[in-house]
Automatic annotation (TrEMBL):
GO terms for biological process: cellulose catabolic process. The lineage of its organism: Bacteria, Pseudomonadati, Acidobacteriota, Terriglobia, Terriglobales. Residues 1-27 form the signal peptide. It holds the Pfam family Glyco_hydro_1. Coiled coil: none annotated. Substrate binds at residues 54, 155, 199, 330, 435, 442-443. Belongs to the glycosyl hydrolase 1 family. It comes from Granulicella rosea. Its EC number is 3.2.1.21. This is Beta-glucosidase. It is an enzyme of class 3 (hydrolase). It catalyses: Hydrolysis of terminal, non-reducing beta-D-glucosyl residues with release of beta-D-glucose. PROSITE patterns: GLYCOSYL_HYDROL_F1_2 (PS00653), TAT (PS51318). One of its GO terms (cellular component) is cytosol.
Length: 482
């Protein structure tokens, strides 16, 4: 060994095991490696997420009723290639092998959603025992694998019978949701301790009822959309109350919202202050209403005559305290200080801005730092979970059957690095759910966009963990970004 190379330098070059074999037999054992500077706190919850319609399949089995996504996807021209979720990942029949795969990866938690039409085929009325039985078996299998279940009660698959009666345009749907949520919490509450009421109100309201690109495919006017949004918020609030009334003491309730993840264009005091104002106002329609139990004056003024109709009692329900907030974060929402009365201006991405396989999925890793940080500064949030984060990629199998998704691995590494920065500074993020475990049915994009860390051959249902799955497994094992 050259005297000019220190043992520490050699360790850095070769790794501890190589150094040990290179040292003389009588040399002292090299010191243990130091903890990674990008470590997460002990007990940080590493998980993955899925949604019922995107993975379960079995859409006509065991008494399940139809959802708006069954109707929408079976309507010609609504989805890519006419793809439907009839089979999807066949998770309904293959959940045990998928849980075994989760366990092998080291996952500590799994976020799944209950399909409302499996439990109440008509949305209300008599429950379907066979539908609920599937979730009993799923939860039991997760717990047997030492994986904590996190249950989302609505991930867009509204029973078609309720849509026929007005869907989210009707206040009755919010009340029907609360009955359903309380029923599930009563029957799963002895084993499921964390519930998320609704997933991404912003998406299912705006894309489904304003833009018409998602189920139920409507294009309402501004007033109609605002009222739908209000009913969604009300469903959340009534759902929180129903869960607490039916689940055991100690059950924790929150939501999973794709709030605008505000990022200051430059990290200077004036732009950070502008971002803080934007976090509240850009999320006025949903998360701000939930966290404050009120709509902001600027939001109502902006809508004018199109503002939603509501009562004080409804706003009190909407503002029911939550135990945690789930944030689905994929892209950055940049703002700058502009000296206006509002206090900020949005900065839109230029055409050259990099994105993943999905054109909308612009790459801004700092969103996973600023989104949770600003949320925790604007509102007194007890705990935050990153309830979704991940990306689509143009995954293909190599001749030897691998998927070397270096682009997704790059995305995850950079986003998690920014998340670790926030956690190290005291931002109260307690866990991270990667979207998604499996390639699945990506809504109107059908099977054209792959978001999983496990490749799925949709003809054979064969599962193949990708390079990103290896990365995530190593991250979980080290409890640090590598």
């Amino acid at each position: 060994m050259s005297s000019s190379i220190s043992r520490r330098t050699l360790a850095q070059l070769l790794g501890a095991s190589a150094v040990a074999s290179a040292l003389p037999a009588n040399a002292a054992t090299p010191p243990a490696p130091m903890p990674s500077p990008r470590s997460f706190p002990q007990g940080f919850l590493w998980g993955s997420a899925t949604a019922s319609y995107q993975v379960e399949g079995a859409y006509q089995e065991d008494g399940r009723g139809l959802s708006i996504w069954d109707t929408f996807s079976h309507t010609a021209g609504k989805t890519f290639n006419g793809d439907t979720g009839d089979v999807a990942d066949d998770f309904y029949h293959r959940y045990r092998e998928d849980i075994a795969m989760m366990k092998e990866m080291g996952l500590k938690s799994f976020r799944f959603s209950v399909a409302w039409p499996r439990v109440f085929p008509a949305g209300t009325g008599s429950p379907n025992p066979k539908g609920l039985d599937f979730y009993h078996k799923l939860v039991d299998a997760l717990l047997a694998a030492d994986i904590q279940p996190y249950c989302t009660l609505f991930h867009w698959d509204l029973p078609q019978t309720l849509e026929d009666k007005g869907g989210w345009r009707s206040r009755d749907t919010a009340e029907a949701y609360a009955v359903y949520a309380g029923y599930v919490a009563k029957h799963l509450g002895d084993r499921v301790k964390h519930y998320m009421t609704l997933n991404e109100m912003s998406t299912f309201v705006n894309v489904g009822y304003r833009d018409g690109r998602h189920a139920p495919g409507l294009k309402l006017d501004k007033a109609g959309v605002a009222q739908v949004a209000h009913h969604a918020c009300l469903a959340h609030g009534l759902g929180v109350q129903a869960i607490r009334a039916n689940a055991p003491a100690g059950t924790l309730v929150g939501l999973a919202e794709n709030a605008a993840a505000i990022v200051p264009v430059v990290e200077t005091p004036e732009h950070v202050a502008a971002a803080r104002k934007a976090m509240r106002e850009e999320n006025a329609m949903f998360l701000t209403a939930v966290m404050e139990g009120r709509y902001t004056d600027r939001y109502l003024a902006r809508l004018g005559a199109a503002a939603p109709k509501f009562t004080a009692a409804e706003m009190k329900a909407i503002g029911s305290p939550v135990d945690f907030v789930g944030l689905n974060i994929y892209t950055p929402h940049y703002v700058r200080a502009d000296g206006s009365e509002q206090g900020y201006a949005n900065v839109h991405a230029p055409a050259s801005f990099p994105h993943m396989e999905s054109p909308w999925l612009t790459i801004g890793p700092e969103a996973l730092y600023w989104g949770p940080k600003l949320a925790s500064e604007v509102w007194p949030i007890k705990a935050i979970y990153i309830s979704e984060n991940g990306c689509s990629a143009a995954d293909t199998l190599t001749p030897d059957g691998q998927v070397l998704d270096t682009d997704r691995t790059m995305y995850l590494r950079n986003y998690l690095t920014h998340l670790q920065r926030g956690v190290s500074e005291g931002v109260p993020v307690k866990g991270y759910f990667l979207w998604s475990l499996l390639d699945n049915y990506e809504w109107a994009d059908g099977y054209a966009k792959r978001f999983g860390i496990v490749y799925v051959d949709f003809k054979t249902q064969k599962r193949t963990p990708k390079l990103s799955a290896q990365f995530y497994k190593a991250t979980i094992a080290a409890n640090a970004v590598g």
